[in-house]
Predict the 3D structure of the following.
Amino acid sequence: MERLSVDGKFLRAGNQRVFLRMVTYGPFPGGWPGDFSEDFRRIRDAGFHALRLYGWPPRELLDAAAEAGLWVFAGLVWHQSTDFLRADGLDEAREALDAGLRTTGDHPALAGVFVANEVPTDLVRWMGPTRVLAALEELIDLGRGRRPELIWAYANYPSTEYLEPGNADLTAMNVYLEDEPAFRSYLKRLHHIAGDRPVLVSEFGLDSRRRGPEQQAAALTWAVAACRELGAAGLTVYAWSDRWWNNGAEVLDWDFGLIDRQGQPKPALAAVASAFGNPRPEVSTPRFSVIVCTRNGWPRISHCLASIAQLRNVKAEVIVVDDGSTDGTADGVRKNFPEAKLIQLPPSGLSAARNAGAEAATGEILVFTDDDCEVDPDWLHDLGICFSHGWDAAGGPNLPPPPTTSTEAIVAAAPGAASHVMLDDEEAEHVPGCNLAVTRTAFFEIGGFDPDFRTAGDDVDFCWRLRDAGKRIGFAPTAFVWHHRRPSLRAYLKQQVGYGLAEAMLMRKHPSRFSPSGDARWHGMIYTGAPVRIAGAATIYHGPMGLAGYQEMNVHMQPLRDLASAHAQPWNRALLRLITWMAPRLRSRARIGRFSGPVNTHPTPPAPPDSEWAMWSSTGREKALQDLLEAGWLPGGSTDPWDLERDGTRVLVACERHDLGQARLLFRVWGDARRLPLLQEAEIID
């Protein structure tokens, strides 16, 4: 079997891009079946080519999966629904991971590993989000160090969407939204949570017992279509069978399976098979003109133009503007890419070159990229879908190629790369010029690029003027380009100085868009390519008593990308810290004439608790909170680190989940614990 690997915002097997069609399998009452062949034949016949397990697969299962042509994603089994940072839970996870990789880690059917699944939000608050995130990242690092060829991920859910490991290969989210528009809207959001990574819906399903078999079939049909149309890397249907074993007991009060407890197919099985077979809907795309400007860009522009020649489903006019090259770039383009329209200028600057390309273009949509970019084969197709919704301009991500050297890895993780700024999940405030498309009408209406910007800053000025003219900029999260960063640390720092000089020009032209200290005033979120995760001064909106279903962070800029694992040696981390300190100061010096760096702020931690308690309960956390509310306790605010307060005493309540439905309640108390009568049956935690 071909190994699965990450390919930008998607997955790939060999040379073939894959939309991962996965179904959850087990655990079942009584354990694994004695023979997997019949189940796996039916699963394959339904159009699936991958299984997601909630345990580590035995070799017999992997052998049968390989024979059926199914990839398998293992689930690490450990006590993740407890306070695992206080007890030996993380040691248990490390040992389970080591044992699994030792026994079957080399099996060709094993495609990836989920190191955990939905750490409960109340326990995340109890242990601390940054500490939980660090534990998940440690497990991923441990596994990847042993088996780098596998896909490593954490199966997250919307209540802790801020808990995205920076070193995971993809963003996996369990999403149970039964309304199609809401599901589609959240998929768009997931692309921004994922950053540069693929988005995998790691669970989606509907309970046919409560909603009916026909509703289940309909929901799975539109979920498949939505995931394919909106650029998800795959969808995991939950579940194969109604038979399900959880927490040491058989679950009999819900039916999420595609087959019933007797093994008979439900309508959803045929519906999913049919949905997988449906092609993506065709979209009429406009005529594109792709404009690439270069100065002394040979041979890198050859890679750019070769990638444009490989575009799928769209034909485009290609225009190369040679801005005064002296290295034979024009001859190279003329000889190797005769189909490209070549314009030669004396040295005029980037903006003037782009304007010259636009004047020569005949397309309805003018698309700009840089000579150090290589475009994805579906780049223009996905931009075309975006323009079909009426945007005046649009752009997509620019991803650094996987690094082959430590220098490439450090520069890719350093601050200051071209970034998009999003007003919401669909509309951009700014998209970088290396991946910017605009209607011909809007381009000439605002007068094109300002030729005073010769090397940088032109795209910022252009987007601001577009918006000032009432135009709107869309975002196509899967219309990406591979953007090679600067080849050396010296070149990177020189680039940052150039950006600072361009920002000085922007300050003179758009003074109201800058603060007195010289920082740009963006209305939207600045995306760095890294996934959403808790860091620095971010505030999490847990909701009163931590009960919000979708718990978001309040941040203006995402954290930076992680250093690639293969290059994360201590000396490289030290060098990254150094240039992360230097770059904004050099940029500031060029912009406002003085060295000034970002101010690192950290939230004030809550005062240490006065005591912590634990007690076994047959009713769980919600009943404990309700009892306290009825006793006169008041809920805290949406961002408070406690749940309830009364007469100066505050309490945070969490719940450990154990087998057979047993619950162990945890209480963190600031103040007088005697005000909580239910603690009379509890024991103090050392």
Q: What stands out?
A: The two ends are 51 Å apart (CA to CA). The first strand starts at residue 4 and ends at 7. The mean pLDDT is 94. The chain has three domains: 4-277, 288-529+569-592, 611-684.
